[in-house]
Amino acid sequence: MASSSLSAKTSGLGAAPERLSRWRAFRKWIAAQEGWVFIFPWVVGFILLDLGPYIFALIISFLNWDVGRPPTYIGLRNYQAAFTDPLVGKSLWNTAYYTLFHVPGSTVIAFTVAGLLNQKVRGMPIWRTMYYIPSVTSGVGMALIWIWLFAPRGAMNGLLGWFGIEGPRWLTSTTWAMPALIIMSFWGVGSSMVIFLAGLQGVPQHLYEAAEVDGGGWWAKVRHVTIPMMTPYIFLSLILGVIGSFQVVTQALLMTEGGPDNATLFILLYIWIMGWNAFKMGYAASISWILFAIIFLATIVQFLGARRWVYYEYQEPG
Amino acid sequence: MAATTAEAQRRRPVALRAFRWTRRILLYLIVVGGSFVYMYPVFFMLRTSLTKESDLYVVPPIIVPLPPVWENYAIMWQNGPTWSWIKNSLIVVSFSVVAETVTSVSVAYGFARTRFAARDKLFIGVLATMMLPGAVTLIPRWLIFHRLDMIDTLWPLLIPRLFGTAFYIFIMRQFFLTLPRELDDAARIDGASHLQILRKVVIPLSVPAIATIAVFSFMNRWNDFLEPLIYLLRTENLTLAVGLRFFVSRFGTEYHLLMAGAMLLIVPMIIAFFLAQKQFIRGIALTGIKG
Question: Which of A70, A148, A199, B132 could form a disulfide with B255 if both were Cys (CB 3.0 to 4.6 A apart)?
């Protein structure tokens, strides 16, 4: 307003630069806001599909909401029930068991395989693809294959038979169902393997040469060059591994349906059963918040621990 | 005396060479052997899917079933509305790959190359959605789509893809940050808008990274199990991954049919990976995903 009256009064040459600079400033401001246009889809999705649902999940976790009946407010009683529910304890124990073996095991395997695939070997694209394909086909396809490999007369027991060992009835045994799922998970390490491979290719060659000059052998190079330089990647892989393994559900649903005798009842599977089989949405939401708290704590602990062992060569600017 | 030194000189390289050779051979054995261990489940599946049921447990085991029993595939195919499952999967996958790639690239460009006050705070939001478990949003999202009357349709599987996916946004942003800024500064001086810079400068330089997220999207949507499982109800409305779940209960221990079904799910993945693998591996190497 002020500017238009000002420009009306002071017409003529003198006003032109001022008007121009205001116009420039406005255009600059508009240009600065242009970024919003690009990230707009994500902002909308974040509010509608992440932030909103998180708040919503918090609200319904305080409700007694069996689908079909109107929800009633029951305060913390869902959480009280969850803490005393033996199946919540059992499924958390199972999930921790899986995580404890899956995450370190698959990190070591992925690291070793990435190291092998970083060597100069003829036909490497073919070998890399072969290591990666089981991960590409993860999920339902692999679960179906492993049902067969772990069948009482399947390949795994055939292999053990060669060594004179009588294999267990893997997926129908309370003792062996979980180890079976853990063994199977080692075939799905492809994505961390590829990330490690990318990392290995970025380790500066001169560090290896320096280690050689110092008379370091193969193991010294791995121990004092490769592993320290790779710690950021190992850290990323551990973080994503823990988050992922706390949310395992597909394999258990397809291969064991949580059985036998709840031996493979994972926490997310229990949430699914409570929500979509028993229609206790409020109760399921409260368990999902307990799961959230555990994953959150585990991630924080890992970040705090990371200061002790993760080596960053440089601080990223900005 | 002179003769022995000469001999020693001659012999040492030989010993060294022998040592190097054994090391090379050992390396090849481990790499190639390991790759067969990794592919073993897939080979075994292929074999079983082409074996007669009566030959499954023969001792010694049949490694290459001759002649292959293609009939297994026909039986498996006719046992469910396989065509509708494939059609549904194709709709979900093709829509998702295009939508997720386009929006993630554009959002990542916004985070990497434009400047506005809230940008970096919002990016923390992207990182948070990567780290926070999706398990919490599962129930509210279902209730939202239930309220919108979209249960048992493909919409709940399509709509969320329109908003970009945190992990892909993260990968693309990291990649864009590695591109030299001088390039878009030059374009800016020539009067190009952000959209023109994205289309003419940034995207042509980012083909491997874009291919990487497109492959990720294809794999994740094709294999997606939990989402279709909770949103889709009627048998003919399912996607292939969830549809095949019924094979487990229906075929029980008829492993030759089970494996034929698994092949159906896996072969498109293998083909897609072969076609994209060069760009894909390069893309991952270039994006430098790290904490």
Answer: A148
Confidence label for A13 from pLDDT (cuts 50, 70 and 90): low
Quick one: pLDDT at residue B1? 45
Given B30, B51, B71, the domain boundary residue is: B71
Last residue of a domain, one of B22, B37, B71: B71
Taking CB atoms and an 8 Å cutoff, what residues of chain B touch A276? 230
- Nearest Cβ partner for B274 among A45, A129, A131: A129
CA distance A94 to A265: 7
Q: CB contacts < 8 Å between A and B, how many?
A: 262
φ/ψ bin of A267: left (φ > 0), alpha (ψ from -120 to 50), beta (otherwise): alpha
CB–CB contact A53 B34 (8 Å): no
Cα(B86)–Cα(B265) distance, rounded to whole angstroms? 9
Q: Do A139 and B224 touch (CB under 8 A)?
A: yes
Same domain, B120 and B22: no
Nearest CA in chain A to B109: A38
Tell whether B159 and B66 lie within a shared domain: no
> What count of Cα atoms within 13 Å lies in the side-chain half-sphere of residue B53?
10
pLDDT tens figures, B164-207: 888 899 888 878 887 888 888 888 888 888 888 888 888 888 88
Q: Could you tell me if B151 and B208 lie in one domain?
A: yes
Do B50 and B263 form a contact (C-beta atoms < 8 A)?
A: no
Give the structural domain span for B93: 80-287
Q: Domain residues of chain A, as ranges?
A: 2-60, 81-309
Chain B residues near residue A271 by CB distance under 8 angstroms: 135, 138-139
Measure Cα distances from A279 to A180, A191, A249, A285, B177 in Å: 30, 35, 18, 11, 46
Cβ distance of A131 and B38 shorter than 8 Å: yes
Residues B149 and B227 in one domain: yes
Q: DSSP secondary structure string, A84-127?
A: H-HHHHHHHHHHHHHHHHHHHHHHHHHHHHHHHHTS--TTHHHH
Decide the pairing of beta strands A72-73 and A63-64: antiparallel
- Tell whether B32 and B84 lie within a shared domain: no
If one counts the domains in chain B, the total is 2
Same domain, B257 and B134: yes
Cβ within 8 Å, pair A136-B27 = no
Separation between Cα atoms, residue A96 and residue A102, nearest integer Å: 10
Q: Assess whether B214 and B104 both reside in one domain.
A: yes
Q: Which fold has domain A81-309?
A: MetI-like fold (1.10.3720)
Candidate from A49, A113, A233 with C-beta closest to B163: A49
Q: Under an 8 A CB cutoff, do A32 and B273 touch? A: no
The string of pLDDT tens digits covering residues A114-166 is 888 888 888 887 888 888 888 877 678 888 888 888 988 888 888 888 888 88
Taking alpha carbons only, the member of B45, B46, B134, B219 closest to residue A138 is B219
Determine the Cα–Cα distance for residues B27 and A37; give it in Å rounded to an integer. Answer: 52
Quick one: B91 and B17 in the same domain? Answer: no
DSSP string, B31-97: HHHHHHHHHHHHHHHHHHHTS-GGGTT-SSPPSS-SS--THHHHHHHTTTTHHHHHHHHHHHHHHHH
